[in-house]
Amino acid sequence: MNKIKTDKEFLDFYCQCADIMFGHEENEIMYIKDIHHNFRYLSLGHRKHIGKNAYFVADETNLTAEMKELHAKIKLQAYEQDNIIRSSLKSANFIYIDTYNRIGFVRKKPIVNPDTGNCVGISGVVRPYSMPNILAAIYKINEIALVEEDQKNDLPIEYQLNEKQSMVLFLYLNKYSNTEISEILTTLGHKISKYRVNDHLENLKFIFNVQTKEQLIKKAISLDYHLVIPRKFLKIGSYEIDEEVIIAGE
Q1: How far apart (Å, rounded) are the C-alpha atoms in residues 61 and 192?
Q2: What is the DSSP pairing of strand 119-128 with strand 103-112?
Q3: Which structural domain, as residue segments, surrounds residue 153?
Q4: What is the CATH number of the domain that holds 182?
Q5: Which H helix or E strand runs over 34?
Q6: Are 118 and 155 members of one domain?
Q7: How does pLDDT run along the chain (250 residues), one tens digit per residue?
Q8: What is the total count of domains within the chain?
Q9: Is residue 62 situated within a structural domain?
């Protein structure tokens, strides 16, 4: 007969099980916190990336004064999220944006001791956030090339788009019109007319060496520009996401 575990014993057991799954994976970032927000387990991948490009920094001794202030804000958000998960006993997904060039997708879930019914902590698994362009996904599924391979090589890799060009291109890749792009950017505090948006379109066509907007979209996707979110669109922090994709039709 199995011995009933106290909450402390169950959390220790949970950490041991997590180490079996994540203890030897350098790229798997996983952590466990107790109900007091203390880290009780960090995977090998989490420990490896702390201070480099980790999504959560458990060891605050590495941080500069500026980063400590930023980290305090993010940590407060994480505490609030953890408290909601603990009280609701429901898992949730978040995107985590920091000063690095990656967005983290975080799946948090409550750890419940089945012997007592108490929540004893929170576990989190962090992975790179993926936002594939739906056109690229549909073409790939149907084995259709967006552009020929030899057409990918005529854009200088070292060319850097400016902030406005990056924002306009990102919205074009998500199928917004000139008028819609003007409205979106203006709402976000980057006032621009639809005519100026069209000027950016002409410049982008020249940069990508194409003749039409449709060719621009296909070529930019083939060069993975749809995976680049302009920093001006983002704010540092952690935000819950609850959307999912469904398939229509039979």
Answers
A1: 43
A2: antiparallel
A3: 134-228
A4: 1.10.10.10
A5: strand 29-34
A6: no
A7: 578 899 999 999 999 999 999 988 888 889 999 999 999 999 988 888 764 444 455 556 666 777 777 778 888 888 999 999 999 999 999 988 876 667 888 999 999 999 999 999 999 998 888 776 777 778 778 877 765 555 555 554 445 788 999 999 999 998 899 999 999 999 999 999 999 999 999 999 988 888 999 989 888 888 888 888 888 888 888 888 876 655 665 5
A8: 2
A9: yes
Whether 186 and 167 have beta carbons less than 8 Å apart is answered as: no
Helix residue ranges per DSSP H, 23-143:
44-49, 65-88, 134-141
Asked whether residue 248 is domain-assigned, the answer is no
Lookup: tokens for 98: 């920091």
What the block records as the tokens of 83 is 């408290």
Residue ranges of alpha helices (H) inside the chain are 7-22, 44-49, 65-88, 134-141, 163-173, 178-187, 194-208, 213-222
Amino acid at 245: V
Instruction: Assess whether 35 and 67 both reside in one domain.
Output: yes
> How many residues make up the chain in this entry?
250
Report how far residue 123's alpha carbon sits from residue 91's, in angstroms, rounded to the nearest whole number: 10
Residues 124 and 174 in one domain: no
Rounded CA separation 121/28 (Å): 20
Instruction: Kindly state whether residue 111 falls inside one of the protein's structural domains.
Output: yes
Q: Are residues 117 and 178 in the same domain?
A: no
Do 192 and 220 belong to one domain? yes
Task: Provide the token pair at 147.
Answer: 């552009």
12, with CB counted inside 10 A (0-12, 13-18, 19+), is middle
Q: Say if residue 13 is in the same domain as residue 116.
A: yes
The percent helix, strand, coil of the chain (3-state, each to 5) is 45, 15, 40
Please check whether residues 121 and 87 belong to one and the same domain: yes
